[in-house]
Amino acid sequence: MQRQAEVAQARMDSSLAAPASARPIPASDVMFKKTVWRAVDLREKQNRPMFSTGKQITKLITEAVKRGELQAYRSDTLNTPISAQEFFTNLSPTSTGGGGLTEAEKAAGFDQPAAADDGWGNDDGWGTPAPKKKAATKSTAKATPAPAAAVTTGNELLPNELYKLEIKEDVVFDKKRSRLYHDIQAITLIMPAKYNSLGFEKPIASFKYSDLARVFRAHPDEALWFNQQNDAQHKNLADAFDLWLFSSYITKVSNVNDARLEEVYGTGKKGLLAAQQAMEELIEFEYSLWSY
C-alpha cells in the first residue's frame, strides 16, 4: 500500500509539472490567443467513431483512472488534482428518491454498520448476536497508521451513459508558422442532466490533454477511432483529435464575466446561433490576417 501511495504521488507530481498541451507553443510565438470551450455529444453520427461499442473514449478514461495511469482534476483550470476514489464518487449519479436515507436518519446513525456487543451479551437490536469484544492487549492497543484507501467502485455510470464531453482549447495564431492552431488544453467528462437529480449537467472531472494523449498512445488497441469505411484504416484517438475528426459547438468564449453563450444570448435556437456566430468570427479573423 505504501508503494501504491508513492506511485500515485509520483504520478500526481509528474502531471502537475507537465504542460496541459500535447504540443505547447512558445509564448514568444503567440500573436493572438482566445480560449474557447466546446461541447461534444458522442451520440452524434460524426462522433460515433470514438464511441464505438466496447471502445468508448469514456471507458478508456475511466479504466485508466482506475489503473492509476491518469490523473484527474477537479475543474478545467487543472490546478486541483483529485484522487481516483473522488473521481468515482463524482461518477456516481445522485439520487433523492424515497429509497435513500433522510438527513435525520443519517444523523441518527442508520447509515452506520451494526453496533458491536455492549459487553453484556446483547445482540445488535435486529436479532443477530453481536460478536464478542476482545480485550485490548499491548500489541493491539498500539496505534497503527491507517492503510491507503483502495479504489472502490459502486453505482457509477456506464461508459455508454457518459456521452458528453467538454473541450477547453486555446485558439492560437503562431506567427512563426503563420497559421492558426486549435491547441487543446483539457477535456472534461460531463454527467448528463438526466442522471443528475438536480436536473442539470454536472462536470465529473477534467484531464490534461497531454496526459490523455500519452494514454491514447500507450493503448492503441483500446484508444480506437473506428473507421466505418475501412477496417484497415482505424486511427488512434490522439490522431483523431489532431485531425479534428469530431463534431462540436462552442459554448463559451473567454470574456470578462466568464459567462457562457447561453447565459448571454439564451438557450435553444438563440444559443446555437450564437455558437455558430462565434465560430465564424474566429474563421473570419484568420482570413483577415492575410492581404493579397
UniProtKB/TrEMBL annotation:
NCBIfam families of this UniProt entry? GldN
Q: What organism does the UniProt record list as the source?
A: Rufibacter immobilis
Low complexity compositional bias: what residue ranges?
114-130, 137-147
What ranges does the record give for the region Disordered, renumbered to this chain?
Answer: 1-22, 112-147
What is the designated name of this protein? Gliding motility protein GldN
Native organism taxonomy: Bacteria, Pseudomonadati, Bacteroidota, Cytophagia, Cytophagales
Which InterPro entries does this entry report, sorted A to Z?
A: Gliding_motility_assoc_GldN (IPR019847)
